[in-house]
Amino acid sequence: LVGSEMCKETGSKVDISFFAPWEGLKDLVGILISHSDETIEIKTIIKGKEAKNPVSIDRKLIAMIRPHIDF
Q1: Among candidates 19, 26, 29, which has minimal Cα distance to 68?
Q2: What is the rounded distance in angstroms from the CA atom of residue 19 to the CA atom of residue 25?
Q3: Cα→Cα distances 1→33, 37, 55, Å
């Protein structure tokens, strides 16, 4: 994964791009909760609102993950 070394700090915001849409989304912003070799766990941020419950995403579905930059 591109940028995965920079994104390993839990609690950091990350941008995620998928190979194919995941739950209808091709790109997503979230807060990294945890990660392993197979999955990442994030709290999604959609339209500025942070989800209450984290979701687990298989790494094989992720094309790229990088630190999120707020402007």
Answers
A1: 29
A2: 10
A3: 17, 11, 19
CA-based Rg of the chain, rounded to a whole angstrom?
A: 11
Alpha-carbon distance of 71 to 64, in angstroms, equals 20
Separation CA 16–CA 61 (nearest Å): 10
Residues ≥6 apart with Cβ < 8 Å to 54: 33, 41, 42, 43
Strand positions, DSSP E, 36-71: 39-46, 49-50, 55-58, 62-67
pLDDT, one tens digit per residue, over 14-68 is 999 999 999 999 999 999 999 998 999 999 998 889 999 999 999 999 999 999 9
